[in-house]
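Appendix B, record 7
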Amino acid sequence: MASEAYLDIVAKARAAELEYIAGDLLYYVSEYVHIEDKDAPEVVVPFRLWPAQEDALQSIHNNRLNIILKARQLGVTWLTLAYASWCLLCNPGWLVIALSRTEDEAKELVRRLALIYRYMPELMREGGKDSDGWTGIRYKVTALSIDITYPDGRTSTFKAFPSASGATRSFTANLLILDEWAFQAAAEQIWLSAYPTINRPTGGKVIGLSTIERGTLFEQMVLDAIDGKNGFNLIFLPWDADPRRSLEWYEQTRKA
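C-alpha cells (predicted):
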C-alpha cells in the first residue's frame, strides 16, 4: 500500500493533468485516446490523427451544430467518440446521447467508448475500490450507458439508443450524436424529438454523421447546410482523407 504522502502527490499531479487536458483537446486525443485498428499488429493502437481528422475535430469543437458527410472507413465514429470522451471527462454533469440504427449498433458505441476509457488508467478507473488507494475518477459500463463519477460525487453520463421517435424526449443533453444518420428509420420524427433536448440558448451541441443516401433527411440537411439555410457546420471527409489511399487504390476499389 502506497503512503498517504505519495498518494497525495499522485492525486495532485493527476488533477493538474486533467486541468491541462480540459484546455487542449488535441493533446488529450494524441496522448490518451486509443482505438481499434483491425489491420495493425496490435488491434488497439493510439489514435494518430490524419490532417483531415484533426481539422474535422477542431471544426466540431468550434461549432454547435455539425453535420459530417464522409466516405466509408475513415474513423469518423471513433473521432466523434473521442470528442465525446473528452467532453464527459472534462465536464462533470454532462449528458451525451447517441442514436444508432439498431440496438446492437448502439451497444457498439458504448463498447468503443468504454475501450477509450479503459486505455487511460492514469486518468480514470473502472469499477469499485482498488487496493492501491485510487481516489480519482471512476466509470461504470452497462450495455447501453457509461456513468462517470468524479471524486466529489458529481457524475457525467453517456447513453446510447436505437433510433426510434421519442427515444430522447425525456432527457436534456449537452451533446447529441446521430450515427449513420442517413440510414436511421423515421429520421424526421427522431430529429423533431431529439433536437429540443439540446436546443438551448446557453449550450447544446449536435454531431450528425453518415455516408450519403439519396432522398433522406440527412441528404436534405447537407444540402441546406451548403446553402446556409439551417445553421449547420458542414464537414466533408472524402475518400482520400486517409493519406494511405492513392488514386490507384481508388480506381481498383471502384472496379471491384
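Remarks on this record: The helical segments are 4-22, 25-32, 51-62, 76-90, 103-118, 187-194, 217-226, 247-255. The chain has a mean pLDDT of 92.
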